[in-house]
Amino acid sequence: GYAAQNILRYVPGINILVEDNNHRQYGILEPLRIKINEENYIVVNSAYTENNSVILNIESNLPLYNNISAIDKNGSIVELDTLDIIQDSETFEWFGSFTYDFSKLKNKFDIVYENYKLPIEMVELPEISSEEYSYISVEHLNAKIATITNYVDDALEISLLTKSNSANQIISLPMNDIYLLDSSGKKYYCSGKRSSNTIYFDSDLSFLDNRQKAGMKLVIPYASFVDESLESSIAINKNTPTPLSVTLGKYDLSINEINWSKQSNSFKFKTENGEYHSVDNQKSQKLELIIDKTLTNANKINLKNISASANQSELVEHNYNGIKLQFSDPYAEENSIKNANIQKIIPNIKNDANKVNITFSSPIIQIDSKITIPLQP
Q1: Tens of pLDDT along 198-252?
Q2: Which of 70, 130, 194, 339 could bridge to 78 as Cys pair (CB 3.0-4.6 Å)?
């Protein structure tokens, strides 16, 4: 259905939508940057308020993100409520979401790293008037999607903004596959993309007559989301029958194959005094799971991927003369997604284990039905 009762605002820098329920919401309108030296940097891509909290999306290549803090204008350190980081282990580049709790919300504060200070001054977020957006609720996606249209150099610019009804759900839209559909059924695919949520359509759309423009619709052929709150554990032994059903929230997934096998691990490492050592024939087991992408209790909703892991206590701890060795998964490349199945390999299970507890989490769910949004003429 369609709904637009509340004032809508959007956060520049990321494709999320916020509803203003008689509360003003603040944020920054463009990214802010600290240049530490010729190589290192901190960029605040977005900042916006939720009640008395401020959520900042920050990227940097500094190895110590724990040294970043928020200081209010009274010089007091602001409490860090949550921190979620994705980091590249080779380049040290990372992207993080920082949530700071203010006892009384201020629109001015500083982000501080050692002797460097980045002033943050938030303004009231832009309001989207009803003439500027088309807005739709998507039931299976548990979210709302808004489109904002604008003409830039005769090209039609469309920004897609999403608002999930769950704080643990991250939505992904296939921007390159989205198209426009006019009243005669002709499709128009995008000619360019400016950011993760803005696409452009060629100027030939300006030659459409008013009837075609009035019937123009934006079509999202499919959408996906990851729900970080969904988690389920199940014990699997060497006699567990298949297919095995696993309930994950409101979804039921099916494990079609369970395969146990032996493995022998080898380690090469360097000690603090510079000596190289190798440890061979470290015996363990690996478990292969073949998971059906089709969810057994859902129509046009499929499993795109999922995390599967064993309890740490059920894995082999390798060591050499008291030195704990870090196990590198040689089977990581074997995890694959085929036409109908998802393959998951859990290596390094204790060699004498007859069963293992597997935790499934963070499923990526794909909605395979089209989402159609009528555009403003």
Answers
A1: 888 875 565 565 555 557 788 989 988 888 888 999 999 999 999 999 999 888 9
A2: 70
Q: Which amino acid is present at 48?
A: Y
Instruction: Write the pLDDT tens digit of every residue in 246-279.
Output: 999 888 999 999 999 988 777 666 666 667 777 7
Q: Are 12 and 29 a contacting pair, CB within 8 Å? A: yes
Long-range pairs, 81-90, Cβ under 8 A, ≥24: 81/53
**Could you give the 3-state DSSP secondary structure of residue 354?**
coil
Q: How far is CA 86 from the centre of its chain?
A: 10
Q: 141: how many CB neighbours lie within 10 A of its CB?
A: 23
Query: What's the distance, CA 359 to chain centroid?
Result: 20
3-state secondary structure of 191: coil
CA torsion sign for 181, 132, 223, 346 is positive
Rounded CA separation 150/246 (Å): 46
How far apart (Å, rounded) are the C-alpha atoms in residues 314 and 325?
Answer: 16
What whole-number distance in Å separates Cα of residue 343 and Cα of residue 337? 6
**If 0-12 CB within 10 Å is exposed, 13-18 middle and 19+ buried, where does residue 202 land?**
middle
